[in-house]
Specification:
Layout (H helix, E strand, L loop, with lengths): L5 H11 L2 H23 L3 H16 L10 H23 L24 H12 L6 H10 L4 H8 L3 H21 L20 H16 L9 H33 L28 H9 L12 E5 L5 H10 L15 E6 L2 E7 L13 E2 H6 L9 E2 L4 H4 L1 E2 L1 E6 L4 H16 L3 E16 L19 E4 L12 E4 L3 H9 L3 E3 L9 E5 L8 H7 L2 H12 L2 E16 L18 H13 L5 H17 L3 H17 L6 H14 L3 H16 L7 H21 L23 H42 L11 H11 L4 H11 L6
Parallel strand pairs: 2-7, 5-13, 8-11, 9-12
Antiparallel strand pairs: 1-7, 2-3, 4-6, 8-13, 10-12
Length: 813
């Protein structure tokens, strides 16, 4: 990883929590960080605590680094703040330190420049460097504090060597001016990084990496962090929050001050009922055109700030005719009257309508309904590739909307589709699963070259002159008409007809021929008529015979737009009790697996599976099978989970099928969610997050069914039998009976305690996925909305709100 830039290491660690990426960051920047800490705190345990706090703060807040290309500069700033906090804490603990000078800010006098000691120069340099703006500070840290060459720094900062040189010269000049004003000769420190090099003790580096790994990969809380280090982390977190609060306050004050120009006393005068209306006063920097935008945003065909799509349902407002005349009627061809238009797509720029397209066919063919099928909304305004749609239930044609769509111009389908799904549910009462996902499903693969020939490749010729391709299984006279288009649309039309994704590897798109595609189904459409008209095997054979193409049905994993009805929530989970511990021989064998097979090779894991199969024959009971399956998934998950995803899922599912132990089940839900988070077959973070959240919410619903207390109970004490009772068998027997009751109470308390910890771990994992903090994952304000929808499908309304409040709760300071 030595050639990988810091930016990629940080992003990789943020995505998959890879210990190797974090270790490389510690190796690169550890010397610089420890040097900053020691210059403020001197050599000792305080400096090492500050070192650990700096890197563990990075591990905990890795997603919040705004400029990942300047990691060295970020670490330098955090290390200095942590060390200064540690110095203040130490000063409060004792008034008389052995080296009092290290506890007070260094005082510089206007003595000759050569009189300043090297230590004073280094401390002063750190202090003044914090005031140097980016990107000059980051360049100086890399070249002068870490000893990187200019080519290395250029790669790290994604710029040219010339830019590095100019930034470095500028940084040195600023520092030289600042240090000279303090009476220090900075020439040596500004040219040599060797004076700042500090060797990081191997034990310190390894300990820091180990704690970060525990925080990142195994679901541990911050209890694995040493208390002294945790206090320093909390201190720098509190400083960051306070700084952000002060900055926000200054912004508000500045905004109010700027807005005061337009808030004169006359603005609030009591105008009588006969007072003439006036135009609203313009604030500073506001143009008359802004008032027009404000007025437009009050219309039904405008978008609120932040929105990308909305539906306007019939009966339509009067302004529809005005927009239709303004945008559609101004085109070259003669448009139909507005009353015959379903649907109209209105495109906006910053919420204000700027253009529109209208689509005719007011009435849906074969029905008395007005409107357009859902397929028309996806294909035209949203520009979805209809060949990559999975619509098993043929909802694209059966869901009809009598509505217009308003959408933000030049918005990608990935953002429009979720907005359309929400609008369908809120305004039309239609609850669909409408999302892009990677699924394994039957697809149609088209290959070869088509042999279609039209008498005239001229769109002005009558449609009957075009080549004809009928999709339905048997040609019938009632299907004399068709959809006139060209061969580029054949694959998407076939996908909609069959409800299956189509992968086109032919020359349909490059060798255009005008065709009439006859694909109208018999109305009313019933399951029987659809099965007859759209049998995939027969349809593909017919199309192949007519076109000369090769069409095959095959199963593979593809990324598609999934359109299906939302599944009904499953039956609520049941309350589960404590299951017996494994028999001693089985318990000893399971413990052996934990040490013999963890972090093993594929051969080792294959041996583990064979061994598990043998023990399943010896212990066929349901609870024993659950224990065995759990130990296999536990060993796989505690190894490199990103390499054991398949085993974690396979044996995790077996645990959920066999085990009645709620503690084991809760742990498996946590493992399955972690596997989803690092599954690289899912291309986007949003897909991985949704899959992980679905698993975590299922586990959380099970945890709620156990009726657990809010806090884990304390373990009750168990009396011991002392030697003084050796000669009193009656009293000893009484105490043994009491002891058995106490042991049973202790086991029950431990069972509840473990369940509470499992429940809290599930919440922590959800918090890591959905806390609304902008970072490289793209977490933003949309996260809580998505979590609310997913939770509502599995939890009650009150449980959903309580969970959201817990997940969004700010971190402890």
């Amino acid at each position: 990883m030595s050639a990988v830039p810091d930016e990629q290491l940080v992003q990789h660690f943020a995505r998959v929590r890879d210990e190797g990426a974090f270790a490389e960051l510690v190796r690169r920047h550890g010397s610089m960080v420890l040097g900053v800490c020691r210059r403020i705190l001197t050599v000792g345990p305080d400096a090492e605590d500050a070192f650990q706090a700096t890197f563990l703060f990075l591990a905990l807040r890795v997603g919040e680094i705004r400029n990942t290309g300047s990691v060295a500069s970020w670490l330098h700033g955090v290390a200095r703040r942590v060390a200064l906090n540690a110095r203040k804490s130490r000063s409060r603990r004792t008034k008389h330190e052995q080296f009092a000078a290290s506890d007070r800010p260094t005082k510089f006098t206007a003595e000759p420049a050569t009189a300043a000691s090297l230590t004073e120069l280094q401390v002063a340099l750190d202090e003044e460097l914090a005031r140097v703006p980016e990107p000059f500070r980051g360049t100086f840290v890399l070249c002068c504090l870490e000893g990187r060459t200019r080519p290395e720094a250029a790669i790290e900062l994604s710029c040219t060597e010339g830019t590095v040189s100019s930034r470095l010269a500028r940084a040195r000049q600023m520092l030289q001016d600042r240090l000279t004003r303090r009476g220090i000769a900075p020439a040596v420190a500004l040219t040599a990084g060797a004076l700042f090099e500090v060797a990081v003790p191997p034990v310190l580096g390894a300990s820091t990496i180990r704690i970060a790994s525990l925080l990142a990969t195994t679901g541990h809380g911050t209890d694995v962090i040493p208390p002294a280090v945790a206090a320093l982390i909390n201190g720098v977190t509190a400083m960051s929050v306070k700084k952000a609060t002060i900055l926000a306050g200054l912004v508000v004050v500045a905004a109010l001050a700027a807005g005061g120009i337009g808030l004169s006393a006359g603005s609030f005068q009591d105008r009588g009922p006969s007072a003439p209306s006036e135009r609203p006063a313009l604030s500073k920097g506001e143009s008359p055109g802004d008032n027009q935008k404000k007025a437009a945003n009050l219309s039904e065909y405008a978008l609120q700030e932040g929105a990308v799509l909305k539906l306007v349902r019939a009966p339509f407002p009067e302004e529809r005719d005005r927009l239709y005349t303004k945008f559609e009627a101004a085109k070259a061809f003669q448009p139909p009257p507005p009353s015959e238009t379903r649907l109209m797509a209105v495109y906006t720029n910053r919420g204000t309508p700027v253009s529109a397209n209208a689509f005719t066919d007011r009435r849906v063919p074969g029905t008395t309904e007005n409107g357009k099928p859902l397929a028309a909304f996806l294909e035209y305004p949203l520009r979805v590739d209809m060949a990559n749609v999975l619509d098993r239930d043929h909802l694209l044609e059966s869901v009809v909307l009598d509505a217009d769509v308003v959408l933000q111009k030049n918005t990608a389908p990935d953002k429009l589709i979720p907005a359309l799904r929400d609008e369908l549910k809120a305004k039309c009462g239609i609850d669909l699963r409408l999302e892009f996902a990677e699924v394994e499903n039957e697809v149609v693969r088209i290959s070869g070259k088509h042999t279609l020939v039209s008498p005239a490749a001229d769109p002005t010729r009558p449609h009957d002159d075009a080549a004809i391709v009928h999709f339905y299984a048997k040609a019938r006279e009632e299907h004399a008409g068709g959809f006139y288009t060209d061969t580029r649309q054949l694959s998407s039309q076939l996908a909609q007809f069959l409800g299956l994704p189509v992968i086109d590897e032919s020359n349909l798109k490059s060798a255009t021929v005008w065709v009439t595609i006859r694909h109208h189904l018999r109305y009313p459409i019933t399951p029987k008529t659809r099965a007859e008209d759209a049998d995939p095997v027969q349809v593909l054979k017919n199309v192949a015979d007519q076109t000369g193409l090769t069409l095959k049905l095959e199963k593979q994993k593809v990324r598609v737009l999934v359109v299906e009805k939302q599944k009904k929530p499953a039956d609520p989970p049941k309350k589960l009790g404590r299951v017996p511990d494994p028999e001693p021989n089985l318990q000893a064998e399971l413990a052996r697996w934990d040490t013999a097979f963890r972090h093993g090779s594929d051969e080792k894991f294959a041996e583990l599976e064979r061994t598990a199969g043998e023990w399943l024959k010896k212990y066929p009971g349901q609870d024993d099978r659950g224990h065995i399956y759990f130990q296999v998934v536990h060993v796989a998950a505690q190894s490199r989970i990103d390499t054991q995803i398949a085993r974690v899922r396979e044996y995790g599912q077996k645990v959920l099928e066999q085990s009645r132990d709620p503690v084991a089940r809760g742990t498996v839900y946590s493992y399955l969610a972690s596997a989803a988070e690092v599954d690289r077959t899912l291309k986007t973070f949003e897909e991985r997050r949704r899959l992980a959240a679905d698993v975590l919410l299922t586990g959380f619903a099970e945890a709620l069914a156990q009726e657990l207390p809010a806090e884990a109970p304390e373990l009750p004490a168990v009396n011991r039998i002392g030697r003084e009772l050796e000669n009193d068998p009656v009293e000893a027997a009484r105490i043994r009976t009491q002891q058995a009751v106490q042991m049973d109470a202790r086991r029950e308390a431990k069972f509840v305690r473990d369940l509470v910890q499992r429940r809290n771990t599930l919440v922590l994992q959800l918090r890591g996925l959905y806390r609304p903090t902008p970072n490289v994952h793209g977490r933003n304000e949309e996260g809580p909305k998505e979590l609310r929808k997913l939770a509502a499908a599995k939890l009650s309304a009150s449980a959903t709100e309580a969970l959201l409040a817990e997940v969004m709760k700010p971190p402890a300071r």
